[in-house]
Specification:
Elements lengths: L3 H15 L3 H9 L5 H16 L1 H11 L9 H16 L5 H15 L2 H16 L1 H6 L5 H6 L1 H8 L4 H23 L5 E5 L6 H10 L4 E3 L6 E4 L9 H4 L3 E3 L2 H10 L6 E4 L6 H9 L5 E6 L2 H13 L5 E5 L13 E7 L14 H4 L2 H21 E11 L5 H13 L4 E3 L7 E3 L1 H4 L4 E7 L1
Parallel strand pairs: 5-6, 5-8, 6-7, 8-9
Antiparallel strand pairs: 1-3, 1-4, 2-3, 9-12, 10-12, 11-12
Bound molecules: S-adenosylmethionine.
């Protein structure tokens, strides 16, 4: 064994039980001297297990002689990897799935657990066609409890499914859940301080990159094969920044003029500040703040590479009123800390490490930040309030509660909507909410 599955096991274990982030774990692996094909398989298995956890566990539970809660965590992860390979990967032969899983159980379990893993996986393999035909044992639930069915079948937290279903109905919900389980596009934003979109596409195209222009933003490029893109001369020279299309749109909606004075209250790592700086042609002034000093250095690093000269950075807690900012800004951007549920596609572990109570406590922080922002914007100016989450609590509720207490402010429509919402399913972007609040 080339330790491929052992590495996958460690990553999943770190993500599920030790608070690690999949993307960071995979980055460490990618930067080691690992074979490209091995990396692809590890990335596939880890992402797949994390993404499809509820359904995989449902299958394990239905086929286990041991009570689910009693299965030791490491043995459960071995089983999850096995089940994922059986139902979702057709390239791995059955005998190899069993062999590799049993080897892992031998290393990390006892004699009993080796027999348990071997027995459960063999039994599932024997019944595979039957299980698939019965929609993984969910065909009955599909008719009796659609909320529960969708949550298990598409492996999404129940509170999330319930909320989307209530607001958008069955078809929209199912499309969204499905999209959340796909691979996100790799999108970059051209830095027009140095090149235009066509020039950059030509340069990257010559290096073999397959590219497509984004539809909603005029600055985005989707890269189909982003391998080694950070080693290119174009990256070094600051010709682009990796940024989701929805995130680019936030700055386009803010639409800064060249002489604007702008405050970005939650700015790190600086994606939206940098795109505003670009739209302002390096003129005017942007104060980019964040609560985290460490993350401020990330902004500084990014603006240096991107050739930005009109951004000043500062550590500032947006929940605390800052007299120095009072009525000083033409626009204030609140790209609020949020539950990030719009990022399920990009960061599948968010499905399992954010709960509904997180949503509620974030709402309180967001209300404080929006309240302070309203004191920093000049009369006639605007606040842009954006989040990478789609919950009503963190968007509609924060905004409408603010508006009911602050009559001087009102929403300016974005494409005929009070609050613009972008979805992986309909827009092929991260899930995002954007509102423009005029004073
Ligand atoms: C969604 S991220 C911002 C992303 C950034 N606008 C961009 O486009 O690259 C939210 C940021 O808010 C910061 N943050 C959290 N609580 C804060 C607070 N009380 N005051 C200021 N920043 C805060 C976090 O450190 C995080 O960097």
């Amino acid at each position: 064994m080339k330790n491929i599955r052992k590495k996958a096991l460690f990553i999943i274990d770190n993500v599920f039980y030790k608070g690690a982030f999949l993307k960071e774990e995979l980055l460490i692996l990618q930067n080691s001297d690992i074979d490209k094909r091995d990396y692809k398989l590890i990335s596939n298995i880890t992402r797949g297990v994390i993404q499809n956890r509820t359904l995989i566990d449902y299958i394990i539970n239905n086929n286990s002689k041991v009570r689910f809660k009693k299965i030791h965590k490491i043995i459960l992860t071995i089983l999850e990897m096995g089940i994922y390979q059986i139902f979702f990967l057709d390239r791995v032969p059955d005998y190899s799935i069993i062999n590799e899983s049993v080897k892992l159980a031998n290393i990390y379990g006892n004699k009993g657990s080796v027999g348990f893993v071997n027995g459960l996986l063999r039994s599932v393999l024997r019944k595979k066609d039957e299980i698939v035909k019965d929609e993984f044992g969910l065909s009955e639930l599909k008719n009796s409890d659609i909320n529960k069915y969708l949550s298990i079948y598409y492996s999404h937290p129940q509170f999330y499914v319930d909320a989307v279903l209530k607001e958008r109905g069955r078809e929209f919900t199912e499309d969204l859940l499905l999209a959340n389980n796909t691979e996100p596009p790799f999108t970059i934003r051209v830095n027009t301080l140095f090149v235009n979109r066509e020039e950059l596409m030509e340069k990257l195209n010559e290096k073999g990159y397959i590219l497509k222009k984004t539809v909603l933003s005029k600055f985005g490029i989707i890269v189909e094969n982003p391998d080694n893109i950070f080693s290119t001369e174009e990256f070094e020279k600051g010709f682009f920044y990796v940024q989701d299309e929805a995130s680019i749109l936030v700055s386009e909606i803010l639409n800064p003029e060249r002489d604007f004075k702008i405050l970005d209250l939650c700015a790190a790592p600086g994606g939206k500040s940098a795109s505003m700086a670009m739209l302002m042609d390096n003129m005017g002034e942007i104060i980019s703040c964040d609560i985290s000093k460490k993350k401020i250095s990330k902004i500084n690093e990014n603006i240096k590479r991107l050739g930005i000269k009109n951004i000043k950075t500062a550590v500032n807690d947006a929940q605390v009123f800052n007299e120095d900012f009072k009525e000083k800004f033409d626009s204030v951007l609140v790209d609020a800390p949020c539950s990030g549920l719009g990022l399920y596609r990009k960061k599948p572990e968010i499905k399992w490490n954010r709960s509904y109570s997180d949503v509620l406590s974030l709402k309180e922080i967001q209300k404080d930040i929006l309240n302070n922002a309203s004191k920093y914007v000049k009369k006639g100016g605007a606040i842009i309030y954006s989040t990478c989450t789609l919950t009503r609590e963190e968007n509609e509720e924060v905004i409408y509660e603010f508006l009911s207490e602050n009559k001087e402010f009102s929403l300016e429509k974005i494409n005929n909507s009070d609050i613009a919402k972008l979805y992986p399913s309909t827009d092929n972007t991260d899930g995002f909410s954007i509102a423009k609040i005029k004073r």
